Each structure stands twice: as C-alpha cells, then as structure tokens.
Amino acid sequence: ETRKKICTMTEVSTPSVQDDKMTLTLFVMPGSQYSGKVIAALDSREIPHYVSFVDFNAKTRKLPSGNTMVPELLVEYKQEQDGEDGEKREPFILADSDAILKWLDETFDTKLCPTEKSWELTRRASSNFLGGAVLYYNWVNDVGYQRTMRKAIVKGMIPSFVPTFVSNPFADWQLGPERTKHKSKTAKMMGVTEAELEDEPTIRAKLKAELLFFQALFESEDQMYLMPGMDKPSGVDCSVYVMLERLVSNGGMGDVPLDPSIPEFRQETSDELTAMWKWYDHMREHHPIQFKGKRPSKN
C-alpha cells in the first residue's frame, strides 16, 4: 500500500510545487517536543497543514507507516497534480523531525537550515545533550518524572477519585519499562554513563553549559533569532525552543497543557542566561506552538 512507504530524503523527489498542490498531514503526540519542532517550523513559514493526534500508548498508536515514533508527515498530492511524465504522484511518508525540515527546505525553499552549520546546530539541539536533558528530566530523574510523565498518566488514565497511594504506584508500574528504556537512550544522547545520571546537580550544570553554548550564537543585542542574519526562526530556533518548553514552560507545550519538569531552572539561571530567556520569551510571544485546531476533515 502506498501509504505504508516511508521515504528517505534520497528517495523523495522534490518537484517545484506550491502548497495548494499537495496536502500535508502531520501525525503527532500532543505535547511531543519533536512534533512541536515541526509545527513551529511549518507555522513560521505559513505552510498550510493538518495535525492528527495519535495515542500515547505505543501498543494502540496508529501511524501511517505502521511504526510508533512521531512525528510523521504524510504528503498527498492533489488528484490533478501528476508528474511531468504524466504519471500519478503517489503519497509518501517522512519520519523524523530533521528529515521533515530538510524536505521543507528542498521543496518550499523555507531556508530553515540554509547552511551546514545550521544543520549541525539543529541536530545538536535535538539529538545530543539538550534533547537528552528533556528525556532525563521527564523520564529518568525522579523529581522531574513525578512532575511530568507520572502526573500525565495519573490524570489521563486514572479516575480522580482513586487515591494517590493507589494511582501513583499504578502509573509507575505502567511506565517502568519505558523509564528503563529511556535511561540508556538518555545516557547515549547526553554522552554520559548511566551511573553519571544519578548525579543530578552535575547534569543540571551541564545543561546550563549547553544553553550557554547556544546563547553565544547571539552576536548583538538586537539579534532576534539564534542564527545571525535570519528574520524568521531557523531549525535551530525551533529545536531549542521546544526543548525549553518541556523543561521550564508554565503554560505547557504551546497550546497543550503540560507541566514543566524543572520550572525552577529558569530563575536559577536568570543572570547567566539573560539573552537566552529573552529570546525564549520572544519565541513564545511571536511563534506559539499550535497543535490544536488543525484536524483533517472527516469527509
């Protein structure tokens, strides 16, 4: 079946098309940082798209590819838009947020990552220490986990009349295998051993150092975005932005209510990361992440 085909960037042709010639449907989990990254990118370039929510439970999650990782972008051409050779263009799926951003650049000339450096920094924010820190403080660290993933499961799956001495252990039992899996993944992304994950103060200091690295991209006080010379968010902006949403935002991930994992971190670093928090507030004001209100028509 054509919808089951997942394309790599080397397999996808990028014809000169406009958004009125295709339909883009992004499959996400509400509040997912990698889903939010793609939504921020699409909205920053005003590219029309639908957003379809999938189940939190991987066993019941339905994605076009049959896999379980979000986001996935389903690209469907309008019926009248055949290829130059007259053949019908088949729908295809792009998985992985970076692959989606790359396709957007090549198809719509979005200039989300116009240089190799911007691609390197986008990948660094998503796949290395900062991305790992989000997993760490949502899944591995006990305090962050209790604030976020456990709380989300208790609110979403367990009736409110059930006492916490019952609901919390149930959530821990449900999420235990995922926490174990995320521990090894987190250590690999952060470049530390699993034993070092037990030292939370050191992890927190490393997180501050990583954000200081990104803050150093600002060359002047009036620079609006992380990559100099950009008048719109780059892939770097979208990537760092969504990670901070999961770590410190008291308003949730865009329009999805989620509790932050380390809300106190912003106040702790207010002096050292002044420019970073100023930029973050600018992103929240001018580029709010909108998951809701974009569902595909049922017709």
Automatic annotation (TrEMBL):
Source species, domain of life: Eukaryota
Protein name per UniProt: GST N-terminal domain-containing protein
A Pfam family recorded for this sequence: GST_N_3
CDD domains: GST_N_family
Origin species: Cyclophora tenuis (Marine diatom)
Domain GST N-terminal, chain residue ranges per copy: 22-112
Transmembrane segments: none
